[in-house]
Design brief:
It is a single chain. By secondary structure, this protein is mostly helical. The chain has 2 domains: about 100 residues, no CATH class; about 40 residues, no CATH class. It is built from 5 helices and 2 strands. It has a two-stranded antiparallel ribbon with strand order 1-2. The longest helix has 27 residues. It is elongated. It starts with a helix and ends in a 17-residue tail after the last helix. The mean pLDDT is about 75.
Length: about 170
Amino acid sequence: MTPHALAKAQCANHVKGACLGISVADLAQEERPKTAGPPDEYSIIADPQPVCLLAQDPPEACGYLERVCLILADRPSPKSDPVRQRRYVQARELYREMFDGGKPTRRCRDCGGSMPKGAAACKRYCVPCADKRKMAARRKATRECMRRLRARTGERVHKNVLASPHSMRV
């Protein structure tokens, strides 16, 4: 997926190929109601463009896309569309190559997403993938412990027995 395709799919400013030009700062002001229409004290200050900034030749960086849409790459995909996050990560990486000078970034070994800049050099996985791996390891350890306990006692054991410190002796 390209950054422009991501803007078409997810950007609230992208309407029929044009850009409404509403900034994120205007949306963040909670004390004012948001209205569309003729300018007044409650209207949003916008800088509309006839064409999306990413569709121009050469493309320009878009603050709204950076602060609102590219964050979607950090969220997991829904079960109805399991490859959505991968496409969003691809669009984010292409955008960063276009506007951040193509600085090399470390990638997660599971999903291929970029690692945060402050991540330690020894980290191999992004936060969502690391959490998934921790949960999988925890489930595997619980299953193994239950299997050993069942083999030792010869009867069915409930999971809550594992919480007891006396049941962990082998």
